[in-house]
Design a protein that fits this description.
The protein is mainly α. It contains four helices and no strands. α1 crosses α4.
Length: 74
């Protein structure tokens, strides 16, 4: 993706993700495991997993709904 598209995607994701989903997403980008994320944010690994599943679905839906806009996304 070109830089401009990446920035637009990140801006769009910031609008659709909850605060907790953003926290988890940022920690995932830093290669944290579910257990490590749970320890950092004070929850259980199973809660992290379910939140992560919902956030992945939101990201997929966002990208699918905007595929014309982000045509270089693969």
């Amino acid at each position: 993706l070109i830089r401009k598209e990446r920035r637009e995607i990140i801006k769009g994701l910031n609008q659709i993700l909850s605060k907790r989903q953003k926290q988890i997403f940022n920690l995932l980008l830093q290669d944290f495991t579910n257990i490590e994320i749970a320890n950092v944010i004070g929850t259980t690994p199973s809660n992290v997993q379910s939140t992560k599943s919902r956030l992945i679905e939101r990201i997929k839906k966002f990208l699918t709904n905007n595929k014309e806009k982000y045509h270089n996304y693969k």
